[in-house]
Amino acid sequence: MANRIALVTGAAAGIGAACSKRLARDGVAVGVLDLDAERCADTVAAIEAAGGEAIALGADISNRAQVKAALAKLRERFGPVTILVNNAGVTDFVPFEEIKEERWEVVFKINVLGQIIVAQEVLPDMKAKGWGRIVNISSSSAQTGAVNMCTYSASKGAVVTLTRSMAQELGPLGITVNNIPPGSVMGTIMSEANRDRFQIPTEVLLQTIPVRRMGEPNDIANACAWLCHEDSGYVNGQTIGVNGGRVVS
């Protein structure tokens, strides 16, 4: 994987940071992107301390101009981008009867349109190389639904079907597109900020997970790294659940 260049969104902490560090460990130079570059300093520092290469980038993924500007910096530093981990997103906790159109639009603009924008902007690099890996991060709530999370779950369900369609369209170009729906991962910005909103106590939730533990960001990162590898070139359009067996397919 040496000489590969990756962009990981939502990479200041949690799953995005873990994916960035894991790819860097494989020799990939990483563009670590979040809402602003300062948030990414710790992730970049950890990568560089381990001997890897990374650059901190700032952009709102739903703003095409900001994405273009961030990618220009990444290309200037390392070169064309052939790996994309579409991880950035927002959550939403609200009863179904209280869903507002304005919030629905925000969640879908970031969680769905944002992934489309970033993928479109890196696509020319992948087409030119005849090789690319795109991993869209969805959510196990897209597979099961979740109480008070209709907007979020629906947006992540859109990511699953978006992945399937992208895979069919981009596969002939040498670009694979897969998605990972994480399940019950602690230690992320979303999970920590919304811990008191979870409907199921942790001790009860653990009984629904066959491996009897909560997920960690590195669990997702390891699966992501495999999907980004040369060896996974025949895996395309797939939903790779990383959830300890809570959701099986």
Could you explain how this protein is built, in words?
The chain is an alpha/beta fold and 249 residues long. It has one domain (5-232): NAD(P)-binding Rossmann-like Domain (Rossmann fold). The protein is 45% helix and 13% strand. It is built from nine helices and six strands; from the N terminus they run βαβαβαβαβααβααα. It has a six-stranded parallel β-sheet with strand order 3-2-1-4-5-6, with helices on both faces. α4 (101-129) links the parallel β4 (83-86) and β5. α4 packs parallel to α6.
Topology readout:
Layout: E1 5-9, H1 14-25, E2 29-34, H2 41-49, E3 54-58, H3 64-77, E4 83-86, H4 101-129, E5 132-137, H5 141-144, H6 150-170, E6 175-180, H7 189-193, H8 202-206, H9 217-228
Parallel strand pairs: 1-2, 1-4, 2-3, 4-5, 5-6
Helix pairs in contact: 1-2, 1-9, 3-4, 4-6
Descriptive keywords:
6-stranded parallel β-sheet; 249 residues; single chain; 13% strand; Rossmann fold; alpha/beta
The proportion of residues in beta strands is: 5-15%
Q: What is the number of domains?
A: 1
Just give the CATH class. Alpha Beta
- Class based on secondary structure composition and strand pairing: alpha/beta
Which CATH architecture would you pick? 3-Layer(aba) Sandwich
Low-pLDDT stretches are none
Let me know the largest β-sheet. Answer: 6 strands, parallel
Major β-sheet strand ordering? 3-2-1-4-5-6
Q: What is the gyration radius calculated from CA atoms?
A: 17 Å
Quick check: average pLDDT?
92
Please write the string of helix (H) and strand (E) elements: EHEHEHEHEHHEHHH
The CATH superfamily is identified as: NAD(P)-binding Rossmann-like Domain
Termini separation (Å)?
Answer: 30 Å
Q: What level of helicity do the residues show? A: 40-55%
